[in-house]
Amino acid sequence: MLISIVGIIVLLGLAFLLSGDKKNINLRVVGSAFALQLAVAAFVLVVPVGKDILTGMSNGVNQVINYAYVGINFIFGSLANTSNLGFIFMVQVLPIIVFAASLMAVLYHLHIMQWVVKIFGGALHKVIGTKRVESLCAAANIFLGQTEAPLVIKPYLSKISDAQFFTVMVTGLASISGTILAGYAALGVNMDYLIAASFMAAPGGLLMAKIIMPDPEPDASDAHLLEVDSFDEGEKPANVIEAAANGAADGLKLAANIGAMLLAFVALIAMLNGMLGGIGGWFGYGDLTFNMILGKIFAPLMYVLGIPWAEADVAGNLIGTKLILNEFVAYVELFKIPEGTLSPHSIMVVTFALCGFANLSSIAILMGGFGVLVPERRHLIAKWGLKAVAAGSLSNLMSAALASLMMG
Questions:
Q1: DSSP label at 334?
Q2: What are the Nucleoside transporter/FeoB GTPase Gate domain coordinates in residue numbering (predicted)?
Q3: Which of 228, 267, 275, 378 has minimal CB crowding within 10 Å?
Q4: Which residue has the higher pLDDT, 205 or 227?
Q5: Which long-range contacts does 254-262 make (Cβ < 8 Å, 24+ apart)?
Q6: Contacts of 333 (CB under 8 A, 6+ apart)
Q7: Can you say how many angstroms the Cα of residue 160 is from the centroid of all Cα atoms in its chain?
Q8: What is the tens place of the pLDDT at every residue in 69-112?
Q9: What number is the average pLDDT over the span 123-145?
Q10: Mean pLDDT of all residues belonging to the chain
Q11: Sign of the CA dihedral 80, 82, 85, 87?
């Protein structure tokens, strides 16, 4: 428990060192954000009723995901049966994303998601004291991706302050989308941890953003912001059927992109490891790999999060993989690790730490998404991209540290 407290202090210290405006850090906002992130962790991981609620939500999500296998079995037949050919990523995981995207589109068309986001956004605004726009976007990021969530506040993206825009970037990078969460679950990632991390990411992202780039300006946003629709005129589906079809099409694009990315990145890592091993062999280090280097770099950080030193290298490699490549590759690598290498506690900490979009490739994704929504601010993404990734990563690591503290 003590080492996890040290880890929390280290993470807050790193955020403070990255801050470009230390004198304007709002201690009330920062303290409230940290308290809320801590409270969420305690409620869902320690308090019996909270654990029951988390388990119920996890079972509910898993049940919904199981419905996707009806469609998967229909399309792929015996290929979908893992007892026949084993686990096939393209069959068992990627189609889940198509189904989840279609379901989310239907929920938005029926205004169910808008209602949920409105409640969570209003709660963040009241409890933490952050501005309405950034609070709403942080809430939307619990359920949506880093490029979809800003659509909820699209009318305000050109009007908010630079610091608020940075917060919007960070809350997107600190979170994952409901669609991608389903993909992780299909890999075998613990659903309880994923859901807990998703809810902790909202106050966590606000916490790190407000330390690194405080916003001293008053909230001038419209009080009716929470009524903003998520569809532009002309883009809104005519009915539920069109919404489901559009969502499925978007999900297919996302699944294809993830599949192509994993194929390329896993192969590139293998090639890089081969090259490093060849070069290392000249000096007596024939087993040198990219993973080993990343593990050594991030091992101390993982140690202060509560992971035993003997396992810190392996955990550090996964964090480095997530930062350099992305979290999906890191989760795939997690399940390649031989059983017994990491303790259940370490796997829990790593699961929380990996649960977010904060990686270098996400900078390009943000530039593409915001370049369309608010092109006049695209230069800010290039300027603050690395700092936003650092803030998002610190948020994920803070969730991991708090989970380690609660479960230690």
A1: H
A2: 91-187
A3: 267
A4: 205
A5: 254/97, 254/98, 254/101, 254/179, 255/94, 255/95, 255/97, 255/98, 256/94, 258/94, 258/97, 258/183, 258/328, 259/89, 259/90, 259/94, 261/326, 261/328, 261/329, 262/89, 262/328, 262/329, 262/332
A6: 291, 317, 318, 321
A7: 24
A8: 899 999 988 888 777 777 787 888 888 888 988 988 898 889 88
A9: 89
A10: 88
A11: positive
* Cα separation, 294 vs 120, whole angstroms: 37
Dmax of the chain from CA atoms? 66
Q: pLDDT tier at 324 (50, 70, 90 boundaries)?
A: confident
Report DSSP state, residue 47. S
Cα separation of 294 and 313, whole Å? Answer: 8
Which pLDDT does position 228 carry in this prediction? 46
C-alpha to C-alpha distance for 164 and 131, rounded to whole angstroms? 8
Q: Which two tokens stand for residue 89?
A: 């990523």
Phi-psi region of 249 (alpha: psi -120 to 50; beta: other; left: phi over 0): alpha
Task: Say what angle helices 132-140 and 112-128 make with each other, to 10 degrees.
Answer: 130
How far apart CA 63 and CA 56 sit, in angstroms, is 10
CA angle 151, 195, 117 (to 5 degrees): 30
First to last CA, the chain: 6
φ, ψ at 229 (rounded to 5°) = -80, 165
Per residue in 195-223, pLDDT (tens digit) is: 999 999 999 999 999 999 998 766 555 44
Query: What mean pLDDT is predicted for residues 41-45?
Result: 94
Nearest by Cα to 126 from 116, 118, 135: 135
Domain count, the chain: 1
For 103, the token pair is: 């379901």
Asked if 358 contacts 173 with a C-beta cutoff of 8 angstroms, the reply is yes
CB 71 within 8 A of CB 248: no
Cite the beta strand spans of 100-253 per DSSP E: none
Q: Provide the residue range defining the domain that includes 392.
A: 2-407
Q: Which secondary structure element, helix H or strand E, spans residue 298, and what is its range?
A: helix 290-304
Residue 320 has which token pair?
Answer: 């480095």
